[in-house]
Amino acid sequence: MAKIFQVTARAGMTRVVEPIARTLLRAGVSPNAVTVTGTVGVLVGALGFGARGHLVAGALIVTVFALTDLLDGTMARMSGGSTRFGAFLDSSMDRVADSAVFGAVAYWLATEHDYSGVAAALICLAAGGLVSYVKARAEGLGMTCNVGIAERTERLLIVGVGGLLTGVGVRPALEIALWLLAAVSIFTVGQRMAHVYRQAQRVGVE
């Protein structure tokens, strides 16, 4: 099934990112340094701005620094491929960043007494972690799991758009985005588990 953020859009972003990646590599910047910098930027946007109710600034900062997820991967590919530690660091920092984003959103919604939104944010946090875990566990068992309607980029885009709209006065947008994201995240977990189950069945038959 095609992902929300289509492959063609990703390819377009890659064409923009590649010149930046080359410049950074020539300057001696490592992909791991970009990974850590991106995570720090997301933490600043989420905890320093989003959690305090500055939703437009927070969403913009998080979006800009979340795009380093494309940048560090492109840099790793250009420099000969990702190392095992680089892949581990990237995955770990993604979980840190995601936790900060949804934790900040849940905190701000709690200060606004929007407990339905808080519940949605917590479901997104748990389901998002499960989406990543199911893939990692499947790959650890020697199977593939590159399926799902909403991966990390899609999830951040959905919550980012909701935050921006709420920040400019469309009050219910963030809560709507969170419940939509909760639904597609849970659906993605189901897709991935079904995909792995079918692979496991084929292996059992063979």
UniProtKB/TrEMBL annotation:
Q: Which cofactor does it need?
A: Mg(2+)
Query: Quick check: keyword Transferase in the entry?
Result: yes
Residues that, per the record, bind Mg(2+) 2: 69, 90, 94
A Pfam family assignment:
CDP-OH_P_transf
Naming one, the record's GO cellular component terms include:
plasma membrane
* Compartments where located: Cell membrane
Q: Where does a CDP-1,2-diacyl-sn-glycerol bind?
A: 32-35, 73, 77, 83
Q: How is the cofactor bound?
A: Contains a di-nuclear catalytic Mg(2+) center.
Q: Which reaction does it catalyse?
A: 1,2-di-(9Z-octadecenoyl)-sn-glycero-3-cytidine-5'-diphosphate + 1D-myo-inositol 3-phosphate = 1,2-di-(9Z-octadecenoyl)-sn-glycero-3-phospho-(1D-myo-inositol-3-phosphate) + CMP + H(+); a CDP-1,2-diacyl-sn-glycerol + 1D-myo-inositol 3-phosphate = a 1,2-diacyl-sn-glycero-3-phospho-(1D-myo-inositol-3-phosphate) + CMP + H(+)
The enzyme's E.C. designation: 2.7.8.-
Cite a single GO BP annotation. Answer: phospholipid biosynthetic process
Keywords carried by this UniProt record? Cell membrane, Lipid biosynthesis, Lipid metabolism, Magnesium, Membrane, Metal-binding, Phospholipid biosynthesis, Phospholipid metabolism, Transferase, Transmembrane, Transmembrane helix
Cited InterPro entries = CDP-OH_P_trans, CDP-OH_PTrfase_TM_dom, CDP_ALCOHOL_P_TRANSF_CS, PIP_synthase_PgsA1
Active-site residues per Swiss-Prot or TrEMBL entry: 94 (proton acceptor)
Q: Looking at the record's lineage, which domain of life comes first?
A: Bacteria
Q: Where does Mg(2+) 1 bind?
A: 69, 72, 90
Q: How does it sit in the membrane?
A: Multi-pass membrane protein
Q: Which GO terms describe its molecular function?
A: magnesium ion binding; phosphotransferase activity, for other substituted phosphate groups
- Locate the transmembrane regions by residue number: 115-134
Q: What does this protein do?
A: Catalyzes the conjugation of the 1'-hydroxyl group of D-myo-inositol-3-phosphate (also named L-myo-inositol-1-phosphate) with a lipid tail of cytidine diphosphate diacylglycerol (CDP-DAG), forming phosphatidylinositol phosphate (PIP) and CMP. PIP is a precursor of phosphatidylinositol (PI) which is an essential lipid required for cell wall formation.
State whether it acts alone or in a complex, and with which partners, per the record: Homodimer.
Give the protein family.
Belongs to the CDP-alcohol phosphatidyltransferase class-I family.
Name it.
Phosphatidylinositol phosphate synthase
